[in-house]
Amino acid sequence: MTATSDHRAFNEAALTTDQGIPVADTDNSLRAGARGPSLLEDFHLREKLMRFDHERIPERVVHARGAGAHGVFKIYEPLDEFTTADFLTDPDAETPVFVRFSTVQGSRGSTDTPRDVRGFATKFYTRQGNFDLVGNNMPVFFIQDGIKFPDLVHALKPEPHHEMPQAASAHDTFWDFVTLQPETMHHLIWLMSDRALPRSYRMMQGFGVHTFRLVNGHGRSTFVKFHWTPALGTHSLVFDEAQKISGKDPDFNRRDLWEAIEAGNFPSWELGVQFIPSEQAFAFDDIDLLDATKLIPEELVPVTPVGRLTLNRNPDNFFAETEQVAFSVGNVVPGIDFTDDPLLQARLFSYLDTQLTRLGGPNFAQLPINRPRVPVRNHQQDGFHQQRVPVGRANYSPNSLGTQDDGAGFTHHPELVDGPKERKRSVTFADHYSQATLFWNSMSAWEREHIVAAYRFELGKVTTMAIRVRMVEHLNRVDHDLAVAVAAGIGVEEPVKSVDNHGRASAALSQAPTAPGPVTTRKVAILMGDGVSARWVAGLSEDLTQHGVTVELLGPVDGTVDTDDGLPMEVTRAMNTVASVVYDAVVVPDGALSLAADGQAVQFAAEAYKHGKPVTAAGTGEDVLLRAHIRLDAEDPALILGDAPAAGLLAALAVHRNFDRDVAAIPA
Ligand code: HDE
Fold first, then answer.
1. Residue 136 a catalytic site member
2. Residues 6+ away with beta carbon under 8 Å from 307
3. Model confidence pLDDT, tens digit, residues 407-432
4. Residue 100 marked ligand-binding
5. What pTM did the predictor assign?
6. Fold entry, domain 66-366
7. Where are the transmembrane segments (predicted)?
8. Is the beta carbon of 153 within 6 A of some atom in ligand 1?
9. 627 among the known binding-site residues?
């Protein structure tokens, strides 16, 4: 090695200060003698501490807790009929994207699995600049006008006097506000449903919520609603499970996304669009397209699949990418435009504004994660953290000395607007109940049970009785039986029936599976103990992994167990480091006699059964189920007993859960 290359190698590997000065020792500060005082001239110590002292930035005021990933988006067929947007019309375009999923209420360090709405925000780095689709996993929103957003969020967030509860809507101020603002009733029933507890970000739908518009080359505008549909199906946790996960693995959804991508199991979603020709803007009797508390049932306007999003790369650095990404509903490209939805209009201001505080100035679009993948040219200048070095002297327009607009860029759809200035809601926004009823009518029996239980839990935490009573009155206008069931659980008098249920339903709103779905990446725990049948465990593991299922062998401790054929078998991890709630199914094999006497193993089986999960046992494994009070003679397609359980277990995983069990007596 020559002296020169030696020198370069040293520089590339060694630590430096922010000024690029090589650091010789980052473990000891500069002192006057080994036991003497520290010296002010230690620039390395001062810089290191200064940087550390300022590591935190303000978290997002909502959606603070999140997880992100990179990926690509590609359309199926060109959409020239509807839009000029390049990424929606060029069939060869592979558009890079960054997606951030989030909860809404909790702080940045809060748990992943509260009962909450989830954010689903996508930044498309198109060849015409960035398009952000900043959506949620529920197709409607609590309020109709953005001027109510601070009130909604204040009421939802921890109460201001004692800052409790964290990441939870089950408290007085939230229910006080929503019961006084009845437009929230539709979104509330979604929040009380299993949609608020996604099993995985990978198994969650996404919605643009507002009506947007696409504009084609002839200037024709079409109203659209955006839908994301996950390839793995839409699945949820149950509430008891979600609450326990909050303690056992608060990073549950974040970890799930990270691990799937690391393992090469790239999650994907289909983008679907509901197209509504402008002439049909008023075609739906009780739905105003500008009202974000309403959805358009798929029976009225089908969802047309238009493209696929695939997430295929984890961020290199959480802070630089997931934390610093700045979405804005206002980031649209030519061919996509807004509507007059008053919630959307307020968002157009809010997202740009919030970044000034959160990211410390106006130059946040220059951060690597926010930077468009096309050249940026304009006369904006200066401000904190300017990273560009503009050249030339023409920093104004018009000019004859530098860059000018060429008139061919984004044009706003020239919609005719006419009306008096007034603070007024349209009468077409007045119906707050019929779509909540539609949602309730569309639920399966078990989904309804979960909804009733959720209202009872949330309202049961509300200490002001008058608020509970108010909510029951609202529910009575959604559906009388629902109101009666909730009232009975929260000490409120049964209401008198006041309105008839309209009886309409929309199949797409239910999560009850209509056909088996993929089992890829589902996680199965096999409980292990000495004496376990090696052949049985190996055979089942192989059958499951062949179908893409992740199998983990849980031992009494880390290391190995002795199998029935005399050989040790390595376990994946010790049982005490996990819990049934982080798995999709639990298996108790034959031969591991110690398991029936192990309370932890019994709890594993009981809890999994209680949460509707597939449970499998063979031979002596059945004793564990008996101790868990599981009835082995029950007719239950997700309780798979016997020597060859693989097919039954795969079939049960493919429909996610069996909620037709009587689990009242299960003590988990
Ligand atoms: Fe947001 N919202 N929002 N929101 N929102 C923010 O922007 C706001 C609304 C949504 O992963 C903030 O950068 C107002 C609807 C997501 O970084 C803030 C109103 C929908 C994310 C903000 C709404 C959303 C945010 C906080 C009513 C679904 C996370 C930090 C007018 C369609 C994006 C930030 C990410 C984040 C304001 C309503 C979705 C404060 C004023 C409706 C997914 O600007």
1. yes
2. 73, 74, 75, 76, 88, 270, 271
3. 789 999 999 999 999 999 999 999 99
4. yes
5. 0.96
6. Catalase HpII,  Chain A, domain 1 (2.40.180)
7. none
8. no
9. no
